[in-house]
Amino acid sequence: MKTIIEPFKIKTVEPINFTTREQREVLLKQAGYNPFSLTSESVIIDLMTDSGTSAMSAAQWGGIMQGDESYAGASSFTRFEKVIKEITGMKHIIPTHQGRAAERILFGITGGAGKVIPNNTHFDTTRANVEVSGAKALDLPCPEGGDPALIADFKGNMDIKALEAFLEKEDKANIPLGMMTVTNNSGGGQPVSMENIRQASELFHKFGIPFFIDACRFAENAYFIKKREPGYESKTIKEIAQEMFSYADGCTMSAKKDALVNMGGFLAINDDALAQEARNILVVTEGFPTYGGLAGRDLEAIAIGLEEVLEEAYLKYRIRSMEYVGEKLTAMGIPLVLPTGGHAVFIDAKAFAPHIPPHQFPGWSLSCEMYLEGGIRSCEIGSVMFGRTNKETGEFEPSRMELVRMAVPRRVYTQSHMDYVVECLEEVWRNKEKLRGMKLVYEAPVLRHFTARLDYV
Ligand code: F0G
């Protein structure tokens, strides 16, 4: 059979609230032209994020009832720890309430003024946690990653030559750890090859620097390795994931992605002393080491989700969902980051609306129009998120790319929902010349996209 179907049946459903364009015009204006400020009832298809939006399985809901809510030494923690140790091979598993809490603890210990953290591309919360500690977040993406239209297998890779040049010139004492984000979310959800993970690991280790993985979408990355990297076609997803983690000394994880749950995360570390320090902070800010900000039932659901996410039928359907939308949009001529990534379809807004300069936020404008047209909520990953005004020169420094991300929640939408999204974009594309530039009316000092208010110029 050619048709790849959703590998599940639907047992529980949630109604969608429909709105008209006129209603959406009022709602978006009230929201300060910021999709983050819309209520979910005003949204028809929510592609703002794949984070915490997964549909849980019957097995996970069953596990919720089995959750052991003991303060210390809960059996749910033992199960959680066992599954994560099995996949990552790491020695210390520290639960946190979500990914950024793991980052906060890690960089709270290792960061600080004068330090630099290299990564293929930091996600915004990772960058913020590095910067809040006083350290510098350095992105070293491979050159292919910066060309949206270029078709290549592993556009999420780190630029190994640039990393080597950096490590040779920088004082090692200033580099507490190196990181690799899989898949590379801000770079278009593009995968990182096993070879690249291995090379980065070898380089960091050559200079005596620990190597961490930001593992949010590790299973999607492993699936791409299986499909695209020679030598991995007959390995299981679990074996590939195990090899990925074998090169690392630790990882941060947002369970809200590839653990198929609505909340949770963890920090995994091999080094005993670092793990001890992390647990000391954990007790103060998250909770006791065997629950760390989560309920026993959450730990149970994560353990089950981490097993389900490794199933190949699930990953095949998952990755195909993105390809499907990507193929239809490409056929219409809509510029995308190609090939489509693991968790999202990214539209190249710079090419979609070349008449809007980066300082007038073409991605933000496109994302507003998608909402107005079809009630679709997406997320700008461009100059509102990453652009800066240089404090010394007063000049605007744009983001490397102006993208709109349509992140697809896991196991939530069907093919006809995706067809609706495609139809909506067809209409926006037809009227692309009418897209207007935007300006910021309010911005917070960090992570401004979450609370910014904008208007049309
Ligand atoms: N790292 C990456 C690569 C992420 O994509 C995210 C979250 C985090 C870390 C932080 O995890 O949300 O559990 O604190 N990304 C979400 C997104 C928010 O929409 O891409 P968290």
From TrEMBL:
Positions of the Aromatic amino acid beta-eliminating lyase/threonine aldolase domain: 46-422
Modified residues (N6-(pyridoxal phosphate)lysine): 257
EC number(s) per entry: 4.1.99.1
Cofactors: pyridoxal 5'-phosphate
GO molecular function per UniProt: tryptophanase activity
Pfam family, one: Beta_elim_lyase
Keywords: Lyase, Pyridoxal phosphate
NCBIfam families registered for this protein in UniProt: PRK13238.1
Record family assignment: Belongs to the beta-eliminating lyase family.
Protein name, UniProt field: L-cysteine desulfhydrase
Organism whose genome encodes this protein: Dethiosulfatarculus sandiegensis
Lineage of producing organism: Bacteria, Pseudomonadati, Thermodesulfobacteriota, Desulfarculia, Desulfarculales
